[in-house]
Specification:
Blueprint (H helix, E strand, L loop, with lengths): L21 E6 L6 E9 L5 E8 L14 H16 L8 H7 L6 H13 L13 E7 L2 E5 L18 E6 L5 E5 L4 E5 L8 E5 L5 E5 L5 E4 L10 E9 L2 E11 L2 H10 L7 H11 L6 E10 L4 E6 L8 H6 L4 E6 L5 E9 L2 E13 L2 E4 L9 E7 L4 E10 L2 E10 L4 E3 L10 E6 L4 E8 L7 E8 L6 E2 L18 E8 L5 E10 L17 E13 L36 E2 L4
Parallel strand pairs: 28-31
Antiparallel strand pairs: 1-30, 2-3, 3-4, 4-5, 6-7, 7-10, 8-9, 10-11, 12-13, 13-14, 14-15, 16-17, 17-18, 18-19, 20-21, 21-22, 22-23, 24-25, 25-26, 26-27, 28-29, 29-30
Amino acid sequence: MKYKLLAASILATMSTSALSATYQLTELGALEGAKYSYVTDVSESGHIIGIANGLYNLPVDIEHIDFSLSLIQNAYTNEVNAFELSDKDITFTLDDIKKNNAVATNADAHSFMIRFLANNVSANYQFQKLSSLTAIKYDSGAAVEQTLFDINSPDYPGVTRSVTNFYNAVAEDGTTVGWGSAPFDKIEFTIEEETDPTSWFTRDFIERGIIISESGMEVPLVPRFSEYGGTSQASDIVKAADGYIVVGNMSLGIPQTRQTIITDYCNEKDEPFSTCIEIINNQTTRGIFNKQAAKWTLDNAFNITSTEALGLALVPDVDEIENTTFISNALAVNSQGVAVGVSNTRYYDNYSTILTMPAYFKDGKAVEFINQPDGWQGGKSLAINDNNVVTGYATRRIDGALRNKFFYHDIATGTTVYPDSYFTSSSSYGNSINNQGYIVGEGEVGISDNSRRSAAFIYKIGDDKITNLNDLLPCYGMDGTSSYSYSMSEAKVINENNEIFGVATKTVEKRDSLGKVVTDVNGKTEYESVAVAVKLSPIPNGTIEDCAPPEAEVYERRSASFSWYGLLLLPLIAFRRVFRF
């Protein structure tokens, strides 16, 4: 995985006859009421967490909406026109929504309102805020929602669904970390020079890290600078002998120019104070807060014993301290406390140009290690193992377009390697690395920009090329004739048993936004591809199937001859596709 303890002699015990070993695929389960599910982390002891997206039946609060507003009237006119272009009759009116609660019974009306609210999510705080993303924890084969900061709604059954939750990492004892936003409250506010109050949606903070013990105890990570709510994120956790190490980032302060803007404009004349803060934060480059990568140390009782800012890969000058913000963020940490992530830094050829580059945080320093003169101009470090080898991706222009290329970097030697992707301009990402030097991630397949899709890979440090995990899946379903049901699009985690956790796609009955099965005009059920969370378990004595002539799979199966296969992979029950956060 990213950083877990080394499992003894896994490879040494594997027979050399396993050169054609395969993987067995197992679905991990899905959250009831959600279309998609994804794995985010797995501990060596088997705890699994993830994210669910595409929640059905999102609650729409129509009580506060003025349906006479031109904004919603114009949106409805556009909806009618879209139906006409598809040779369909629209099935609802705005009056149906307002007076007949059509959002609860008519999927078209519900979808219209969800899209309308989503299109105004960051621009207009007088409309309800909704999110279709939630955290999940896998427990005995079932996906259980983790609401983090959400609360029960006063306006409709269940939680508000107004928060965005990211559930990022799990320790060996099941303690988890993530971050989320505060729930929006609906308040009444009167704009200056108006007499009637209107509904506004406000919240206490934009983002806050959180630690959750296996028993459910919650520890919010209040940032060092918490005025205007501040911000913090928790991205990774490691269990230590005397407690826990958690990394992420937090707000440390605010430049004087940002404070001046707040003082001048946030006077509660045109909008509530917290709304004004959010608007300025959204409209200002890199936001209003100076945020740095952070490391929290906790004891076994979950008391925070130390909080450390991990620094930046640049030194702000006097003018910059007053006028702009800088950001670094720790995304992963190993058992020695070495963290990796990103940091703002300077472009090597222009002092005033600020880039966000992969970095690691060690011995009190933030270190940028990607060689900018080679054309690299962005990226992230996503994982680190206990041997201080980092993986992630870096960005540069290839064939006229910015592409991401996965890398691994050895901190001890300072060496950075960019293995071959599926093809020259294929974007690729290294998501996880175990202590044996196996890296998993995903890359683009298909040469045309219009046909590119994501395919999961595995790579062993020292080999020449990545291997498409779909090459290691069966060609056909259980009947021996139908195409295999799964396609592996993202490999998210690899542990010390060389088990791989990630995302596959499969075809299922299509469902509308209310969760009902969709049929066509002839009454036949429609189908769609969805993302599912999966586990791949090595099978020592399997074989690789030749699904098609080589010319039919130039990019899909070109790397199916590497000698290291026997060290871990092959057939499964499997998959092909993914979602990136």
